[in-house]
């Protein structure tokens, strides 16, 4: 179980995209009756101060407290607190953000090493699409005793820019720093906040070991189901009479074994909460099957 991903430890939004998660969006939206709400997050050197969109209370999230929370949850892989600036940001602000993130990650690592508990901690390499900052971040963070390397922050404005970033960045993770005894090649590489199928396949080809994202479950909640024949938009009326037809005939998940598209269409249209459970079960199984195929191709030396 990893505690990384789209909305776990990053302050400022979703890894990879630069947009905020649902809670932050609600908190920053204008209140009824006019007038804007105050910012939901304030970043200081100590950490991030969050304001609850429910009752307005503030609480401080620090590098140390996020580590302790993840340890309490029993996470196998702990992701340190980092700041996620938007894609469009001036370089001076990006430099300040990267430097602050480095200080936070060093504090997180110190907290983790004080009580390891057979848990791992990955660093999060930042720098947006700036090659010099990415290289500096990688060199600094890999000099510290993290157990693995995650790539986070803004990963480009689209899939093409993400692919370009991985093509020039991943070779750096295979190259040890001259005069250093750190073996970068011996540690796993993780990509934060990415799980759409084209980006996943491209990441695997470029040497990424693991990824995490709420993408498959978010799609499921909104009625988009993944299949080997392409995405199934279950709200479409064409599915209302597809009795006996599973989402994906090749899928072995419990949803595909027991429910057809017509019933799932009914659940979605009736706003039955069980739809989200059934759809999520299927989309997660689809992603697991996808990654199993990639692992097999690696074992067969086809990737």
UniProtKB/TrEMBL annotation:
The keyword Metal-binding applies. The keyword Metal-binding applies. Residues 1-12 have a biased composition (Low complexity). Keywords: Metal-binding. Residues 1-46 are annotated as: Disordered. One of its GO terms (molecular function) is metal ion binding. Residues 42-302 form the tRNA-guanine(15) transglycosylase-like domain. This is tRNA-guanine(15) transglycosylase-like domain-containing protein. It comes from Stephanodiscus triporus.
